[in-house]
Amino acid sequence: MAKINKTKYALLGVLTLSSGSGYDIKKFCDSSIGHFWNENYGHIYPVLKKMEEEELITKKLNEQKEDHQKIYIPLQKKVKKN
Fold it and tell me: What region holds the Transcription regulator PadR N-terminal domain (predicted)?
């Protein structure tokens, strides 16, 4: 049986509350759900990239910051009506 990656669902849930960078997401998780779910940056960023490829999220550059930090934003999926 394949193991389900719950990180994707946790990250998507966090992003529906507030868009943010990988750092912002990690900081939010550590301060809110960190007592029962904990991920490191080495796992968060690859999952964010895969979610972007699956068109669940998109990213934009925050040009207000010097390092042009990437901000991740959830996308609204269109539901096909029969």
Answer: 11-72
Cβ–Cβ under 8 Å, residues 73 and 18: no
The string of DSSP letters for 31-53 reads HHTTTT----HHHHHHHHHHHHH
For the chain, first and last CA: distance in Å? 32
pTM of the predicted model over 0.70: yes
> Shortest CA distance to 70 belongs to which of 15, 18, 28, 23?
23
Q: Tens digits of per-residue pLDDT, 32-79?
A: 888 888 888 888 999 999 999 999 999 888 777 666 688 899 887 655
Domains of the chain: 7-74 (1.10.10.10)
